[in-house]
TrEMBL record:
Biased composition (Low complexity): 210-227
Signal peptide coordinates: none
GO molecular function, one term: phosphatidylinositol binding
Domain T-SNARE coiled-coil homology, residue spans: 315-361
Sequence ranges assigned to domain PX in this UniProt record: 2-117
SMART domains reported for this sequence: PX
Bias type Basic and acidic residues, positions: 170-183
Renumbered residue ranges of the record's region Disordered: 170-193, 208-227, 271-297
SUPFAM superfamilies in the record: PX domain, SNARE fusion complex
Protein name (Swiss-Prot/TrEMBL): PX domain-containing protein
Organism, scientific name: Penicillium atrosanguineum
Length: 376
């Protein structure tokens, strides 16, 4: 039987501490999700000791031994060899037919695996496979939830759908274009529908776990829960359903507000265009007629208008632009007048400076002549 968990150690890196140490990044792929666990060689060594102590047997592949003459921090080649050896060590335990090591608590704790992911086919049901079937076909009567661990995994997946829908609604509130808002709303609605189906499946599964399924002759019920745990899980489902209903109400409120905003904007634009059309002497009263034009990228102002409305809007915009040009022309003329006045003032100042220079020259000449007359 193929393992339900795929294990690999694709990379190894050095820590940012002083002194640094080597970190091995273990990638695990389950039927529904993937995650990464980072471990040091000392963690592998402690795990190996606990595994042997719990199973009273050595794993099928020995753990790479510790080297006293080489350091993985300074020797990339040795670090790569150890990474490959540790990957082979974990894969051998994961793929060996004998599942005694995979069912040990040390294995699950070292890889952060849920109980469902560690189950095998040796007399027990494959919980991961059943979880995958439940996720892909929620509400299926052929695969009811009868395992407590499967129920919790399924509940976590349902909560992730609620979380996704909340994120999409927040994103929709931040979007500025109708297309992006529609995409976010559609994704949020899809997640909410999925979550609603899963809540119904969880409620049916809780009935099985409470013992009613076993009493009715359901041989697939693997275990039952106590009254306290049943009440706790019922409270979880009640809160989840309230959260789902609240998100649905929020989605409907956002959609209604968007429609109302578009309707108000359309009415205001049409009224403004009709008033402009009535005031124009060249344009008579015209009743807007819907048309099926396709003009490429529409704007908020033109989306709800027909061809006549777009024409009126264009004329208004052109008239506004003409007014802006007239105002700009007045400003330019005023600036020109100021420039002319400044030029005239500069000419007067230049003439005054010229006269001052001439007077200075005459004064210097007269002073020189007077000095010569007195001297001789």
């Amino acid at each position: 039987m193929a393992p339900t968990v795929e294990i690999a150690i694709p990379t190894a890196s050095l820590s940012n501490t002083s002194p640094p140490y080597t970190i091995y990044h273990i990638t695990l792929r389950l039927p529904l999700r993937s995650f990464t666990v980072s471990k040091r060689y000392s963690d592998f060594s402690a795990f190996h000791s606990a595994l042997v102590k719990q199973t009273n047997a050595e794993p099928p592949v020995p753990l790479p031994s510790k080297s006293w003459f080489s350091n993985t921090n300074k020797n990339p080649r040795f670090r790569e060899e150890r990474r490959i050896g540790l990957e082979e060590y974990l894969r051998a335990i994961n793929e060996v037919p004998d599942g005694r090591w995979r069912t040990s608590p040390a294995w699950r704790a070292f890889l952060n695996l849920p109980t469902a992911a560690a189950s095998t086919s040796n007399g027990t049901s494959n919980t991961s496979a059943r979880l995958h079937a439940a996720i892909t076909d929620p509400g299926s009567t052929n695969a009811p939830i009868t395992d407590p661990t499967l129920w919790l995994d399924y509940y976590r997946d349902m909560k992730s759908h609620l979380h996704d829908s909340r994120l999409q609604l927040s994103r929709r509130d931040q979007e500025t274009t109708p297309q992006k808002q529609h995409e976010s709303s559609a994704q949020a609605k899809s997640s909410l529908v999925r979550a609603g189906s899963m809540i119904t499946t969880l409620e049916e599964g809780l009935k099985n776990l409470s013992g009613r399924g076993a009493k009715s002759g359901d041989s697939s019920a693997s275990s039952s829960l106590g009254d306290g745990e049943i009440r706790r899980r019922k409270d979880l489902l009640i809160n989840a359903r309230k959260e789902k209903d609240g998100l649905e109400d929020l989605l409907h409120a956002m959609a209604a507000k968007s429609k109302l905003d578009h309707a108000v904007a359309s009415i205001q634009d049409k009224e403004a265009l009709l008033r402009s059309g009535n005031d124009s002497s060249s344009e008579g009263r015209r009743t807007p007629v819907k048309s099926g034009r396709v003009l490429g990228k529409e704007t908020e102002r033109t989306r709800e208008l027909d061809n006549n409305g777009v024409l009126q809007l264009q004329r208004q915009m052109m008239q506004s632009q003409d007014q802006n040009v007239d105002e700009l022309m007045k400003i330019i003329i005023r600036q020109r007048e100021l420039g002319t006045a400044i030029h005239e003032e500069l000419e007067v100042q230049n003439e005054l400076l010229k006269l001052a220079d001439e007077d200075t020259d005459r004064f210097v000449t007269l002073s020189l002549l007077s000095f010569l007359v007195v001297f001789y």
